[in-house]
């Protein structure tokens, strides 16, 4: 717990500064205070936590799951063959040059106001860091280790699963922790542009009512959710890559 003390202290100082600044400006529709946001969350806890949070969480989990499958598959294909890498790598990069806010309305037209339009936006945002990081991790295997295992008679399959995959796991988990906040942003963007539920949809609805605290309430929940999910992934990483602590 002691290692989180600096973050807790800094967070409390920022909240105090925010509260003081909001009270000084005294315009809640522009800059609501943290106390007003907490009060709004409490007042609207039932729709926020029982309706909109589960909707956003479902989109996020589905988006991350598909992004991991797609990213890992593309990374493995690119690591196997240089021609595949030369063909796919520019396309993977090109997907990140397309403004998501321009495509999201099209996804709503194509897939409707259901869950899949939001999932597609989330996947498009999150699969890139997973693909690139895992690909770089697969390529980071030391040549000497490969030659040593080949000398001992290891097959290409054994080389891949016993050496390359473990070597790429730290990069994979780093990318996953980067992708979680991005997936929440993607889900919120999709909900903002076209949805019937979700924290992004709720924030947009509060904006039309000029309710500053209501706009910030789902944003705070999204931030806390990102922290919790990254913390969970960090625990899983320490369990899976337990050999790193022994080096």
What can you tell me about this protein's structure?
The protein is an all-alpha fold. It has a single domain, classed as Orthogonal Bundle (MetI-like fold), CATH 1.10.3720. Helices cover 82% and strands 0% of the residues. α3 (45-80) packs antiparallel against α4. The radius of gyration is 22 Å and the shape is globular. The model has no long low-confidence stretch (mean pLDDT 84).
Please sum up the structure shown.
The chain has a single domain (36-242), classed as MetI-like fold. With 247 residues, the chain is mostly helical. The chain is built from ten helices and no strands.
Element layout with pairings:
Layout (H helix, E strand, L loop, with lengths): L4 H21 L8 H10 L1 H36 L1 H13 L5 H12 L3 H25 L3 H9 L4 H38 L5 H10 L3 H29 L7
Helix pairs in contact: 2-10, 3-4, 3-6, 3-8, 3-9, 5-6, 6-8, 8-9, 8-10, 9-10
